[in-house]
Amino acid sequence: MRYQQALGREARLYVAVSESSKQLLAAALVSIDRTAGGLCTWNIARGPLFQWEVIRGNWGELNSSTDELLTAIIDDAKKDKCLPLYLSPLTKLTAPRFRLTPSKRHEQPEATVILNLTLTEEQLLAQMHQKGRYNIKLAQKHGVVVEQSTDIDAYYALAQSTGKRDGFTIKRKTEYHAFLKDLPGSFLLMAMHNNKPIAGLLGVIWHGVGIYYYGASDHTYRALMAPYALQWEAIKMCKAQGCTSYDLLGIAPPHAPKDDAWQGITDFKKKFGSAVIEYPTEREIILKPMTKKMLEMKRKFL
Predict the structure, then answer these.
(1) Distances in Å between the alpha carbon of 108 and those of 117, 191, 241, 261?
(2) N or C, which end of the chain is more exposed by having fewer CB within 10 Å?
(3) Beta partners for 33?
């Protein structure tokens, strides 16, 4: 929540508790983005989450807790002049009482690659694509050194170069700074060559999972393969700190079209492993359909 608040968003936590056992059944962290005219959007990224070991296959209690949770969220969202509520759960969401329509956004990936960090380093290297192992060794041969850092200015300069090169919008420097300062478990690794930063990686360690979030590199030094060295050091660091898995966060889902938003980085990430996990398509519950449609038309013409 602290990280969302540092970005200027309001964050609210909702929970559903079993009436019989008083145990937690489900939870959702909602981040709220304000727009003009007092309107807003509500977003539940990678949620709601369910306490599966408590539910133990009791689908009636699961459906009841889902309905209870979403009802409370939607009631508050309507009072807050929310246009749509976005949901991108880890598993298929069953909510018969609510109309869940596919979202047109691509904010959350529909697939990822997850590495098993209970394997030894030798086993992790062995299960990589041959080109991935080769590029890691090539970076080491060229003298690329990876070190932990707090130098967001250096990372931001690399991000600006990467965004301009690859044609995507990067975040504000204050957002990268908030990521490192206000998100528990966050870390920054920088790849150096002759004491010059040539690539960077921002990630998080959370509940035994290492997660790669952002990467940037200087195209001038592309032959040194620094991003491969960065990923390998991040994997080893997360393993050393007790993580059992490493999430490369997002790739294009299998059979995705060539213009899929995640296609550009898929080949790079799949060189580190082949355990592809797919997620359900993001859904939305439209709370003010006419207002939302009018705003979309306005943005289209402007």
Answers:
(1) 24, 27, 27, 10
(2) C
(3) 41
The pair of three-digit structure tokens given for residue 200, joined into one six-digit string: 């960077």
- The model's pLDDT over 17-42, given as tens digits with 9 standing for 90+, comes to 877 777 888 899 999 998 878 889 99
Dist. CA 213–CA 183, nearest whole Å: 12
- The answer for residues whose C-beta is within 8 angstroms of residue 58's C-beta and 6 or more apart is none
Q: How confident is the model at residue 295 (pLDDT cuts 50, 70, 90)?
A: low
State yes or no: pLDDT of 60 exceeds 70.
Answer: no
End-to-end CA distance of the chain: 34
CB 116 within 8 A of CB 245: yes
- Taking every pair of Cα atoms in the chain, the longest distance, rounded to a whole number of angstroms, is 63
* pLDDT for position 45: 92
d(CA 3, CA 181): 8
Instruction: Identify the pLDDT of residue 59.
Output: 56
Q: Cβ contacts of residue 57 below 8 Å, gap of 6+?
A: none
Q: Find tokens 């007092």 and name the residue.
A: 38
Length of the chain: 302
